[in-house]
Design goal:
It contains 5 helices and no strands. By secondary structure, it is mostly helical. It is elongated, with a radius of gyration of 19 Å. The N and C termini lie close together (8 Å). The model has no long low-confidence stretch (mean pLDDT 93).
């Protein structure tokens, strides 16, 4: 496989860092309620810190993609290619939605991060708003994981059924 058939190293780095951080954040979110209240500060703080890390990764990824990232043609033509392109844009949109809602939720909740202290809440005592934003954040995150799962399934389909090298574009050298 030539260099022009694979994504550049930085594009691959942003892709896999994004995937790893998103999975880690999702797993942490699923176990927060298992911790007793005084101990929840640690998984919540870790989730928030990873979220802020993902904001930086996401911005850098978009900037790289729009300026210097290697652009490859769609893996498939026709409606399947269009569906793949739509899925990629959907992933970008859902990541943005999860991040914006997460930052907004944290601005409302004003959690005590790593027991270092709290920022002031933009809506102190507004539990209805907090619950509503939390629901939207969770819905966006679940939608992101579903679409990412379909994305991964499509990549594995290309690798093991079609044997066409599409997965190698994000793995190969």
């Amino acid at each position: 496989m030539s260099d022009f058939q694979t994504y550049d190293d930085r594009t691959k780095l942003w892709h896999w860092l994004s995937a790893g951080v998103i999975v880690a954040m999702y797993l942490i979110a699923q176990i927060i309620d298992f911790f007793p209240r005084p101990m929840r500060v640690w998984p919540i703080s870790t989730h928030v810190a990873l979220g802020l890390t993902l904001v930086v990764i996401y911005v850098a990824r978009i900037q790289w993609r729009l300026t210097k990232g290697r652009k490859l043609p769609a893996a498939d033509a026709g409606l399947i290619g269009l569906a793949g392109t739509a899925a990629h844009y959907g992933l970008y949109a859902l990541i943005a939605a999860v991040l914006v809602l997460g930052v907004y939720l944290e601005a409302i909740r004003a959690d005590n991060l790593f027991t270092l202290g709290r920022l002031p809440s933009i809506a102190p005592g507004n539990t209805d708003l907090r619950h509503s934003i939390n629901e939207w954040h969770g819905l966006a995150a679940n939608s992101l994981l579903i679409l990412a799962g379909l994305h991964a399934t499509a990549a594995l389909y290309h690798r093991f059924v079609r044997h066409d090298g599409v997965l190698a574009r994000m793995l190969g050298r």
